[in-house]
Amino acid sequence: MSRRTSSPRPPVSIGLLSTFTTYGIDPEPWSARAGVGLTHTTANGTEITLRYDAEHREAFLNQTASLKARWAF
Q1: What pTM did the predictor assign?
Q2: CA angle 13, 5, 24 (to 5 degrees)
Q3: Does residue 58 lie in a domain region?
């Protein structure tokens, strides 16, 4: 599998004296995402939701967990 190389961005000038070059990230073209959630409604109508999500790329793992409660007032 060949690796793409990150090419430099065009030089940026700030003011009259400073110039620098920035390099962007080289993201992998493939990623995997998954998630699961549960929702429960109580007798008085309150809805409680629990959720877990994950995203994976080479050298990167993002995980999110959330708890949400909704009720009418």
Answers
A1: 0.59
A2: 35
A3: yes
